[in-house]
Structures are given as structure tokens and as C-alpha cells.
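Researcher: Next entry in the queue.
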Amino acid sequence: MDYDSLLEMVKARRSIRRFKPDPVPDEYVDKIIEVARWAPSGFNQQPWEFVVVKNKELRDSIAQLHTEWYRSRSLVMEPTREEWQGAYRPAPPVGEVPGDFSYAPVFIILFGDTRTNIGLPMIMRYDHQRGQSIFTSSLASAFLYMHLDDYLLFQNLCAILFFYI
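Model: Structure for this entry, 165 residues:
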């Protein structure tokens, strides 16, 4: 890929907030995960695990957990909203807006496994801030690779979610 093609892809990629329920072939999911496996990671930790969720009931349960988590965090954070940000408008519950991420036919969940931190050099292991920075940036790289591949090859077919374990 040349520079102009890369730049065009980065400029054209968008965060998708409305999904179609159309089936996604397994080979598409495999390709997205394969690209993410090659993402750079600090000290080659590769602190990621991927979980593919196709089952509708399980996807609905995950969406419900997300809604509950988001609302609980909003209750804590929104009182600190600054005036310039305007009035708080709570997001509708997941599943109430047609096409939201709960409608995606596949969830690819990227989990971050903190147990990989044991492989860091001692100076990094015991400097929590540096170790956390390496861990987080490694996961961010995998997350970005997944999104770029999903866009480049498939025009954003999957909901790609991110969690720590």
C-alpha cells in the first residue's frame, strides 16, 4: 500500500453507530482478528484475547450490561459537566435505536489480559504507570488494526468492543 492509499483510507474511515443485521461470513471475522494479532505491542506482550459473539441472546445480554455500566458511570460523571458542554442528554438504552451496535450480527470483543505484564522487564513491572501505558497502548494498536481492517475490507460490518480482564 502506498502513502496516498493509506491516507485516503484513514480519511474515509468513520466510526459506525448504525449497523445492519446482515450475516458476516466467518472468513471476514478471521481476517479482522488475524490483522489485529500482528499489531505492535510493548515488549511483544501481545496482551490480547479475542472473543467472537454471534449468538443473539448473548449479544443482547452484553448490550444490556453495557447500558447498565454506562448509566452508572454517567450518574457519577455528569454532575461534573462544565457549563460550556451544555445540558446532559442521556443516550437511549442500547437496542432502542434501530441499528445501534446491538444490531451488529457479530461482536468481536478485544479483551486485555493484565497477566501478560509479568513478562515485562522488572523496571517496567514495578512502575505501574509505565507498565499500564505499555499495556494500554498495545491494546489500542490491536483495536486500531481491527477497525482499519474492518473498514478496508468490509466497510464496517462488525461491532468491535474493548474490555479489560
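Model: The beta strands are 48-53, 107-112, 159-164.
Researcher: Noted, moving on.
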